[in-house]
Amino acid sequence: MSTVDPVTPVLTKRWLSPRSWSIQTYEQLEGYTALRKALTATPEQIVQMVKDSGLRGRGGAGFPSGLKWSFMPPNFDKPHYLVINADEGEPGTCKDIPLMMADPHSLIEGCVIASYAMRANYCFIYVRGEVLHCIRRLNQAVAEAKAAGYLGKDILGSGYDLEIVVHAGAGAYICGEETALLDSLEGRRGQPRLKPPFPAAAGLYAAPTTVNNVETIASVPYIINGGAEWFRKMGTEKSPGPKIYSISGHVERPGQYEAPLGTTLRQLLEMAGGMKDGIPLKFWTPGGSSTPMFTAEHLDVPLDFEGAVEAGSILGTTAVMVFNETVSVPWAVMKWTQFYKHESCGKCTPCREGTYWLVQILERMVAGNGTEEDIDTLLDICDNVLGRSFCALGDGAVSPITSGIQYFRDEFLALCEKNRAKNRKPALAGAN
Ligand SMILES: Cc1cc2nc3c(=O)[nH]c(=O)nc-3n(C[C@H](O)[C@H](O)[C@H](O)COP(=O)(O)O)c2cc1C
Ligand code: SF4
After folding, report:
1. Among 68, 69, 96, 200, who pairs with 88 as Cys (CB 3.0-4.6 Å)?
2. Rounded to two decimals, what is the model's pTM?
3. How confident is the model at residue 418, as a pLDDT?
4. Which ligand sits nearest to residue 213's alpha carbon?
5. How far apart are CA 65 and CA 212, in angstroms?
6. Using CA atoms, how far apart are residues 134 and 117, in angstroms rounded to an integer?
7. What is the pLDDT of residues 338-352, one digit of tens each?
8. How far apart are CA 432 and CA 423, in angstroms?
């Protein structure tokens, strides 16, 4: 018998329907009913409902969404903006693009409800430019929604106006950091801004702005229709609701698996058909490359915001990358670090210089030219990057290294031993 709880899909319930992305399919399957409901409530009532639901941001940090919305000022000195973070650039993270491809109207409906709740008349969806197919699909969905009266002027006769603009980014991981994203959206080079002021006070064009992840906003119509209590029945007390876990790597059936927050890797592996070819699990990330890795010891860690932290990592974006025993940890760590070095925006010294030196050392070690002292140097550099960088990219960059050495120091040592053996002088023949 399966140990996995029966899961009724919420966020992915339309994904397998024919032409799931079209407005016709969406409307047949409850689409835009939440919007009709929301427009009969006041913006304050919607913010309160989202607060009551316990929805937390799905972009990585898990910040309570209703609380974030309530930071938007009540006055109208300046326009208010909602910005959707659809940059999705972290290695392993691949849930938002499938969501937008399969069910773009759930995001659009969520955008209209959230914008109404925050009194925004403009909403921007910032998508990375590489995913042209996704941008086309979103543009099509926006046009369909507009033609049907769900967007534009006087939405469904409510007197409320909203325009949605789909913006193509140029594909930099740092542009997923919310303030760098805002700079990029304004046409500048994407680099993080000093906070405060936070976006709710001075965001896009220095006006009140809320930045939310795709999955966060796509969850909103279900909360409006199902109610806060219903939403809280899924997941855990502090991390309620359904979640899309993206499972990649050495499993039989990689893909997107929707499950309540708090589901364990053991349960997810069962859904994904187990380890590929039965080769045992070695290490895995709970939420992308910036989340400290776990090992086979962590199969039963509840993957919610609290459970992941208690076990020594973070939930991140629930991008579960699974690696079997054939993969070298120092090699994987080197590949991730090369990514962070490439994506470091260069604004602050610890991250810009640190990632450069970390790559130099890791490449040397993986090539078999490292020394035992290199391990200490790696940890020392990590210590100077973690908590000392301008934004969370720096913190994320050191996670694979520190956790890799924590659990697999022997493998790093073995590389150094190889080097020592290589350099050992051959014994002179006949010497005694
Ligand atoms: C380097 C970096 C990259 C990020 N990339 C993304 C991203 O692609 N998508 C996303 O939603 N959040 C990303 N974030 C988190 C955002 O800064 C922000 O917390 C999030 O968009 C807020 O939305 P939420 O409250 O709905 O989670 C990133 C953060 C950092 C530091
Ligand atoms: S931590 Fe890295 S990405 Fe963030 S501001 Fe500093 S250099 Fe840029």
Report:
1. 96
2. 0.96
3. 76
4. 1
5. 8
6. 26
7. 999 999 999 999 999
8. 21
Atom 8, ligand 2: residue with shortest CA distance: 345
CA of 171 relative to ligand 2 center, distance in Å: 16
Is 351 touching ligand 2 by the criterion CB < 6 Å? yes
Helix then strand then coil, in percent of the chain rounded to 5, is: 45, 15, 40
Q: Is 115 in the pocket of ligand 1 (CB under 6 A)?
A: no
| Ligand 2 mean position, distance from CA 269 (Å) | 34
394 close to ligand 2 (CB < 6 Angstrom)? yes
> Which of 183, 184, 191, 384 gets mutated to test ligand 2 (max ligand atoms within 8 A of its CB)?
191
- Cβ of 389 below 6 Å from ligand 1: no
- 108-117, 263-272, 419-428: range with lowest mean pLDDT: 419-428
- What's the gap in Å between 402 CA and the centre of ligand 2? 19
User: In this predicted structure, what is the pLDDT of residue 279?
Assistant: 98
Rounded CA separation 271/294 (Å): 19
All structural domains of the chain: 23-232 (3.40.50.11540), 242-324 (3.10.20.600), 329-430 (1.20.1440.230)
What percentage of the chain carries pLDDT values higher than 70? 97
What would the DSSP string read from start to end of 279-310?
Answer: PPEEEEESSSTTSPPEEGGGTT---SHHHHHH
**DSSP one-letter code for 131:** -
Residue 5 in this model has a pLDDT that exceeds 60:
no
Residue 187's pLDDT is: 96
Of 119, 200, 132, 121, nearest to 165 by C-alpha is 121
